[in-house]
Structures are given as C-alpha cells and as structure tokens.
Amino acid sequence: MSPTRTSDVLVVGGGIIGLVTAWRAAQRGLATAVVDPEPGGGAARVAAGMLAAVTELHYGEETLLGLNLASARRYPGFAAELTELTGHDLGYRACGTLAVALDADDRAHLRELHALQQRSGLDSQWLSGRDCRRLEPMLAPGVRGGLRVDGDHQIDPRRLAAALVTACERAGVTVHRARAERLVVAGDRATGVVTADGTELGAGQVVLAAGSLSGRLAGVPADVLPPVRPVKGQVVRLTMPARHGPFLNRTVRAVVRGSHVYLVPRENGELVIGATSEEMGWDTTVTAGGVYELLRDAHELVPGITELPLTETLAGLRPASPDNAPLLGPTELEGLLLATGHHRNGVLLTPVTGDAMAEALTTGALPEVARPFTPRRFGAAVRTEQPA
Ligand code: GLY
User: Fold this and answer.
1) Residue 318 Cα: closest atom of ligand 1
2) Cα 344 to middle of ligand 1, angstroms
3) CATH 3.50.50.60 fits 5-45+159-227+322-384, yes or no
4) Residue 381 and residue 284: Cα distance in Å, rounded?
5) What is the tens place of the pLDDT at every residue in 182-218?
6) Which of 225, 259, 196 is nearest to 36 (CA)?
7) Pseudo-torsion of CA 373, 324, 341, 287, nearest 10°?
C-alpha cells in the first residue's frame, strides 16, 4: 500500500454534491480533498437543471419541500458568488415554468397539483389554454390549461459542475483523480479510503458523496451503508433556431399519459427534453423506446420540435433513497458522513447541501433546515423492525 496522504476532510465523489461540499468545507478552513476519477462528471452531465421546487411538488414530500425551497432561495446568491469567484457563467436563468395539460386527465392532475401548492402556501397561477399559448406561442393548440410558476428557474448543470471544479481548485482543495475502492475503518471510526491503485488517503472525516454509487463502497459497515439505488433517466438535446426570436421563453412541462416530460430552453440555444424514470439497475443504455417516448410526448406539447436538429442523447442515474429525500450529515460510524440520495433534486439542492455539510463538518451537527435528512432516520427504522 502507498503511504498515507492526509486531510481534515476527504470527499468521495466529485459530482456537484461532492464538489460543493468540498468547496464549502475548504472555505471554512478545513484541509479538504476530493477523490474521483472524473471530477465534474456524474449525473449533472445528464441533468436538465430545472430548479423546480414548486412544479415538482409531490404528495407526501412536504418535509422535502422545506429543504427544496430553502435551496431555491439561496440560488441567486450562490450562483452570483460562484460566478464572481470563478468567472464561469452558470446559465442561471430566472425564466419560470409553465406546466400544461393536454387532456381532461392531465387537467385534473394539474388541478390537484395546484390545490396542493396552494395548501402549501406556494405561488402558482391557473391559466386557460389560450393564456398558456399567449405566453408560449409554440404550444400545441390542444393545450387545455396550465399552471404558471414564476419562481421555478433553471441552471446549466454542466457549467455548474465546471465552476465548482474551479472553485475547489481556487479554495485549495486537493483533487485525487482516482477511484475510491474501499473505506478504511480503524477501531470504531472511518479514517480514509484506499484507491484502486492501492494508495491510502487518510482523513479526519470522510464524506460519501458518490451519487448512486454511494451504496457500493466496499468496507462501509452494513448498518451505515446508504440505502440509495440508481433510477435511470434518459434525456435528449436539440438545438433551437436563433433567428426568429425565442422558441420557448420558459421551461414547459406536462404529464402525458402518466409520464412526466419537460422542455428546458437555454439561452445558448440548447433545448433539453427529459426525462424517463426507469428502475433498471446500473444500465445507462440510451434506448430507441426511451428516445421515442420523450420525443413523442414533447411533440404533443410543442409540435415544432420536429424541425430542430437533434444534437445529443444521454442516460444517467439519479441516486434515489427510500423516501426520495437526501441523506445528509453524520452517520453512526464516527468520522463518516453522507451527502447522497438527492434523487430528482440534486441540482436544486446543491447550495443548501454545501452549507449544511460544511456546518456538520465544522460543528458536528446539521443546521435546523437539514436535520430531518439525517441518515440516522433509516438506521432507526431498521433497528425497530428487528425482533426483540
Ligand atoms: N428533476 C428532474 C428529473 O429528475 O428528471
């Protein structure tokens, strides 16, 4: 084994969640390192980057809503700080979102969502089909109504990841371009990891932030292994014409025959259409069926997409937890913390995750807003289920 290199904090995983954790920890004066074969990669390479706390509200996720809103509120300041520090334009766009209905079932679904949003004190406005088309002239004539949510914005996750890599470099974070193979546990605490080439990276605290791979690191004791699973999402990227004014002004989304579809127009002309949601294990194949369904549903919403060049198809893995909410902060194993399980909300939750993890790493405790997301919520449930 190669000699040990040590830091105060070692973050396993250099996706946006690992990078924001490392950056914020380094800003607090902790000697921080990240280990990842491809820093800046991961699910953010595929994600559309909707900041959709209101339009992605689901029944039973009211606690998560609090965290999502807290992060959405931090976004303007977070994006400005990151741009100021790194010079990177993040593609942050306060454009709002329009969720539309194509038939009576979609309309009923959207009415339910509107009622839930209102009960939750959220800002959204019901529009007739005609008013939807007035806002977005490219919408299909058959649109029956919609919800205008001016507070759900977007960011370009690839640019966000690149900016976080630069921010980490500037803050003095050491980046090990390697794959973490095994957690090292000495006595009753985590003390580092061993990489694929046998190097031991020692640390005062280890943060497991490896997305859907977080549940697979060897050496993590079974009772603290995060219960995350991969949920596959396929996306398609098209290019919008520059010449006739905006193709779409804001994110447009709908539920079509039970499947969610969204179209996210970027200022640089990219139109991201997503996303499938598939329980397919570790498979990241782009399938004809997945692309067909996305284009078919998007075409029902915005028929003009068939004229646009198709520039990319890609699949990624959302790290999903049993309650669809992230696992943040200390585990029952001394020295091991988690920042994973962000499922559909990784991009949205990046600012609040960085702040919460930096707090946990410096003080040992999560801030109030993140406390419901302790990984211990699952450990306790497992233990009470065991026979006496
Ligand atoms: N939040 C969008 C998605 O997970 O597809």
Assistant:
1) 4
2) 4
3) yes
4) 32
5) 999 999 999 999 999 999 999 999 999 999 999 999 9
6) 196
7) -170
How many Cα atoms within 13 Å fall on the side-chain side of residue 262? 27
In single-letter form, the type of residue at position 267 comes to E
d(C-alpha 53, C-alpha 265), whole Å: 18
Ligand 1 shell residues, CB under 6 Å: 50, 56, 233, 274-275, 318, 344
Question: What is the pLDDT at residue 306?
Answer: 95
Question: Which segments of the chain have a pLDDT < 70?
Answer: 1-3, 244, 380-388
Q: Which residues pair with 91 in a beta bridge?
A: none
Q: Report the percent of the chain where pLDDT is more than 90.
A: 91
Say which CATH topology domain 97-150+230-320 has. Answer: D-Amino Acid Oxidase; Chain A, domain 2 (3.30.9)
pTM: predicted TM-score of the whole model, two decimal places? 0.95
Closest-CA residue, ligand 1 atom 3, reads 344
How far, in Å, CA of 321 to CA of 253, rounded? 24
